[in-house]
Design goal:
Blueprint lengths: L5 E6 L4 E8 L2 E5 L6 E2 L1 E2 L2 E2 L7 H21 L4 E5 L1 H10 L6 E6 L7 H17 L5 H10 L3 E3 L1 H5 L9 E5 L6 E5 L6 E2 L6 E3 L2 H11 L3 E5 L10 E4 L3
Parallel strand pairs: 1-7, 7-8, 10-14
Antiparallel strand pairs: 1-2, 2-3, 2-4, 5-6, 9-15, 10-15, 11-12, 11-13
Length: 236
C-alpha cells in the first residue's frame, strides 16, 4: 500500500479512543456510531481507573475492530498516538500493523485536531520522503543540467507516472483550479460550460507521484520561489 497525504490517526487512552482522517496537517474528527469509543457502560466505567493489561487488551481490541470498519471502506495508512503501554498492547493485537506509518507517545485524546495535526504531520512527511537522503543535492544538480520541471502548470502537463521521480513542494503550497481532467488524466482543460473544481491540484500531483512509486520532499515556505514553489525530477 502506497503512502499518501491522506491517512488515519488513531488516538488511544484508557478513557476513550478517537479516530481522525488526515489531509496533510488538517484533521477531521470522526464522530458517529463507531467513534469515539468510551470505556463506559451506561455512564459507568467498564473498568477500574487503572486497567489491567487484560482489560486494556479487550478495550483496544474493540478499538481495532471498530477501526477495521473504516479501513475496509477506505484502506489508508495509519498514524498511532497514545501512551507507551497502550501503543505496545495495540500493536501486539491489531490486524493493521503493516499499514502503520509511525507512532507518537502520549495521551492526546483531549488535544484539538488542529494541534494534533501539527504533531503527526512531520512524521508522515518524513515517511513520504523515503530514502531520498541526498534530495536537495540532486535538485541542485538537476537545476544546473536543466533536468528539473518547475511550476505547477508544467508539472501537471508532464508524465506523472514516471517511476522513481522526486517531487519537491513547499509545505504550505496549495492551488485551486477550475476545469476538467483530460482523458489521459494529466491535462487540466478549461472549457466553457464544462467546469469542475479541484480543491487542491498540488495534492493531486502528489498522489500521482506517490502512486507511481516516487518520493515527496516537503520544503519550508518560500524555499522554492525560484522554481515557482514546486519542482519535479523525473530521473530515478
Amino acid at each position: 500500500m502506497n503512502l499518501s497525504i491522506h491517512y488515519y490517526i488513531l488516538s488511544l487512552s484508557s478513557a476513550k479512543t478517537r479516530l481522525y482522517e488526515g489531509f496533510r496537517d488538517e484533521l477531521i474528527d470522526i464522530q458517529n456510531t463507531e467513534f469515539p469509543i468510551y470505556a463506559l457502560n451506561g455512564g459507568v466505567p467498564k473498568f477500574a481507573l487503572e486497567m489491567t493489561d487484560l482489560q486494556l487488551h479487550d478495550f483496544l481490541h474493540e478499538t481495532d475492530n471498530h477501526f477495521a470498519h473504516y479501513f475496509k471502506q477506505d484502506p489508508l495508512r495509519m498514524m498511532l498516538v497514545g501512551p507507551t503501554r497502550h501503543l505496545e498492547i495495540f500493536k501486539s493485537l491489531t490486524a493493521h500493523n503493516e499499514n502503520l506509518i509511525g507512532t507518537v507517545k502520549g495521551d492526546y485524546t483531549t488535544t484539538s485536531p488542529h494541534d494534533l495535526g501539527k504533531i503527526v504531520w512531520p512524521i508522515v512527511k518524513l515517511a513520504l520522503a523515503g530514502t531520498t537522503n541526498n534530495a536537495l543535492h540532486a535538485l541542485a544538480v538537476a537545476e544546473k543540467t536543466n533536468d528539473v520541471i518547475s511550476g505547477i502548470d508544467d508539472i501537471w502537463d508532464s508524465d506523472l507516472s514516471y517511476p522513481g521521480a522526486t517531487l519537491f513542494v513547499e509545505d504550505d503550497y496549495r492551488r485551486k483550479a477550475e476545469g476538467k481532467l483530460g482523458q489521459n488524466g494529466n491535462q487540466l482543460i478549461t472549457s466553457e460550460g464544462i467546469w469542475e473544481i479541484f480543491n487542491d491540484v498540488v495534492d493531486i500531483i502528489i498522489e500521482k507521484v506517490l502512486i507511481a512509486g516516487g518520493s515527496i520532499v516537503f520544503m519550508d515556505s518560500n524555499s522554492l520561489i525560484n522554481l515557482q514553489r514546486i519542482a519535479l525530477i523525473q530521473r530515478p
